[in-house]
């Protein structure tokens, strides 16, 4: 059994503003760098054998501080990215609701099948995440591994491994400086 530490990246200015990031490559802000350092300190004694990260810089920055504290290298995997928000990336929730009205609310009714215009469905994201997690667990049986990723992506993993319905995904999004431990 592999113990996974599912770590959400530190805060960005877009998190603070409420902008939807998706695949936008937004860096950590000063608070996010502090949060990443706190995560690194807290997990320094966890006995990590590997650290994997999304390729987006907010996750890589968080993972790098964790890697330095653990004496490891970051292994980057684009499959650990956040959901692609398509035309919604960079917009505030109010802007999305004003521009896209009814389709915005469809995402709550059927998150697995819904995709923002030009974006991904939750089912597509979940499939790529589970493929990556499966490979990571095969490489690291009975070890402790950190996975640094994004809020919605990590919430999807929580629905899967916690046997929650996909419609619970919105309530399972971790905070920017939060991690969850699961055994796979």
User: In the CATH hierarchy, what is the architecture at level 2?
Assistant: 3-Layer(aba) Sandwich
Continuous helix count: 6
CATH C-level category:
Alpha Beta
Output the CATH homologous superfamily: Phosphoglycerate mutase-like
At the fold tier of CATH, the topology name is Rossmann fold
Description of the structure:
This protein has 184 residues and is α/β, with parallel strands linked by helices. 43% of the residues lie in helices and 14% in strands. Strands 3-2-4-1-5 form a 5-stranded mixed beta sheet, sandwiched between helices. Helix 5 packs across helix 6. The longest helix has 18 residues. The mean pLDDT is 96.
Summarize the structure.
43% of the residues lie in helices and 14% in strands. The chain has 6 helices and 5 strands, in the order βααβαβααβαβ. α2 packs parallel to α3 and α5 packs across α6.
Topology:
Elements: E1 3-8, H1 13-17, H2 30-43, E2 48-53, H3 57-70, E3 74-76, H4 93-109, H5 122-139, E4 144-149, H6 151-161, E5 179-183
Parallel strand pairs: 1-4, 2-3, 2-4
Antiparallel strand pairs: 1-5
Helix pairs in contact: 2-3, 5-6
Task: Kindly list the characteristics that best describe this protein.
single chain, 184 residues, alpha/beta, Rossmann fold, 5-stranded mixed beta sheet, 6 helices, 43% helix, 14% strand, globular
């Amino acid at each position: 059994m592999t113990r996974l530490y599912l770590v959400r990246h530190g805060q960005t200015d877009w998190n603070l503003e409420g902008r939807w990031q998706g695949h936008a490559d937004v860096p950590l802000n000063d608070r996010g760098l502090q949060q990443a350092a706190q995560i690194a300190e807290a997990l320094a004694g966890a006995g990590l054998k590997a650290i994997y990260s999304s390729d987006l810089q907010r996750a890589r920055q968080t993972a790098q501080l964790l890697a330095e504290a653990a004496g490891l290298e970051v292994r980057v995997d684009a499959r650990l990215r956040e959901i692609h928000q398509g035309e919604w990336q960079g917009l505030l929730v109010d802007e999305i609701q004003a521009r896209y009205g009814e389709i915005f609310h469809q995402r709550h009714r059927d998150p697995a099948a819904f995709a923002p215009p030009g974006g991904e469905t939750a089912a597509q994201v979940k499939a790529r995440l589970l493929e990556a997690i499966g490979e990571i667990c095969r490489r690291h049986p009975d070890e402790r591994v950190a996975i640094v990723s994004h809020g919605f992506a990590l919430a999807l993993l929580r629905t899967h491994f916690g046997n929650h319905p996909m419609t619970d995904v919105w309530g399972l999004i971790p905070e920017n400086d939060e991690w969850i431990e699961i055994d796979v």
